[in-house]
Amino acid sequence: MTLNKILLSITCLLSTNSTWAQDKVLNIYSARHYPTDEVMYSDFTKATGIKINRVDADDAGILARLKAEGAASPADVILLVDAARLWRAEVDGLFLPIKSAKLEEAIPANLRAKPADNVGTAWFGLSTRARVIVYDKLKFSKTDVDSYEKLADAKFKGRLCIRSGSHPYNLSLFGAMTEHLGPQKTEVWLKALVGNMARNPKGGDTDQIKGVASGECGVAVTNSYYLARLMRSTKAEDRAVVDKVGIVFPNQNNLGTHMNVAGGAVARHAKNTDNAVKFLEYLASPAAQNHFANGNNEWPTAKGVSFDNPALKAMTGGSFKSELLPISAVGMNQIKVQQMLDRVGFK
Predict the structure, then answer these.
(1) Phi, psi angle pair for 253, to nearest 5°
(2) Measured distance CA(216)–CA(199) in Å, rounded
(3) Which of 43, 67, 76 lies closest to 264, judged by CA?
(4) Domain boundaries, the chain
(5) Least confident interval from 25-34, 46-55, 318-327, 329-338
(6) What does the pLDDT read at residue 10?
């Protein structure tokens, strides 16, 4: 066979299977900036042969990029770390609803988008984080801070530390409180929080925990996995921080502790849809769910998954009551919350 005939045969082969070059590729836009996740990506590639290309940014940056790229976007999978942003992306039509028996069986209905008739589900929650309260054990007790509402108590005047009110973690918490208390009572509560602040909001959640340990703050609000990192650290300074603070999962007697959701979806204009669905199904598997728990100190969302993370178990004593609000309710309150924050001067 001549060289020309060989080249012609190869060309014909590729033309009959135009997706051949894409069969083993998956493009991910991820807001999960955790080094421990690298293990999941590599394990998925080893198991499937599918190469992962990843773009990292925060939730807002990813959504802005998707809107700017439109149909030309190369993204196949979107991973976000905030419930309200998942809802917003769904409403803005940035996700491709999918049907997956594995995902629907694994992920509880309250931790995924409401399925559209005959279309599929837009996104699935893959892990959760509790929005907890830490306190100075020498100055306060658990009963002082056993609800979010008590953060407004006058005893915490000049004692509260919290990150920016406009951060997604706080916007989701405040959106949930708006749903529970109503806008008027929530605004009064937010104004009281501003009055109780030890300093203007700054830094991340770890900074709030360290502020309590140093005595700058008496109480602070944080996502649970930041504290779990310190609890599992081998550094003496981190262990010293943990020894000085107590932790409370608020509202155990009524509403339950607010849980934020990290989740995934197939991008609206995905070119590798089958690979994208395989990847989301993998993230709901026991192996990946255990990694969320043991690698990044998050709670798995898939039903029946057990894990062995000593920090998470030490925090809760084994179990706790979590809030069960629909994600859509939290999302729809975001604009209202931001307006309240502006009015009360919550920076």
Answers:
(1) -90, -5
(2) 9
(3) 76
(4) 22-127+260-315, 129-258+320-344
(5) 318-327
(6) 33
Q: Residue 317: pLDDT band by 50, 70, 90 thresholds?
A: confident
Same fold, 22-127+260-315 and 129-258+320-344: yes
CA 341 to chain centroid, in Å, comes to: 22
- Verdict on whether the full-model pTM lies above 0.85: yes
Band of the pLDDT at 319, cuts 50, 70, 90?
Answer: confident
Query: Are residues 115 and 93 in contact, defined by beta-carbon separation less than 8 angstroms?
Result: no
**Position 63 pLDDT exceeds 80:** yes
Query: Which carries the bigger pLDDT value, residue 178 or residue 17?
Result: 178
Would you mind telling me the total number of residues written for the chain in this entry? 347
| Homologous superfamily (CATH) for 129-258+320-344 | Periplasmic binding protein-like II (3.40.190.10)
pLDDT, one tens digit per residue, over 257-269 is: 999 999 999 999 9
Question: How confident is the model at residue 307, as a pLDDT?
Answer: 87
Q: Domain 22-127+260-315 in CATH: superfamily? A: Periplasmic binding protein-like II (3.40.190.10)
- Report d(CA 11, CA 16) in Å as an integer: 9
| Biggest CA pair distance of the chain | 89
Distance CA 298, CA 275 (A): 25
Over the chain, what HEC string results? CCHHHHHHHHHHHHHHCCCHHHCCEEEEEECCCCHHHHHHHHHHHHHHCCEEEEEECCHHHHHHHHHHHHHHCCCCEEEECCHHHHHHHHHCCCECCECCHHHHHHCCHHHECCCECCCEECCEEEEEEEEEEEEECCCCCHHHHCCHHHHHCHHHCCCEECCCCCCHHHHHHHHHHHHHHCHHHHHHHHHHHHHHECCCCCCCHHHHHHHHHHCCCCEEEEEHHHHHHHHHCCCHHHHHHHHHEEEECCCCCCCCECEEEEEEEEECCCCCHHHHHHHHHHHCCHHHHHHHHHHHCCEECCCCCCCCCHHHHHHHCCCCCECCCCHHHHHHCHHHHHHHHHHHCCC
**Distance spanning both ends of the chain, measured CA to CA:** 74
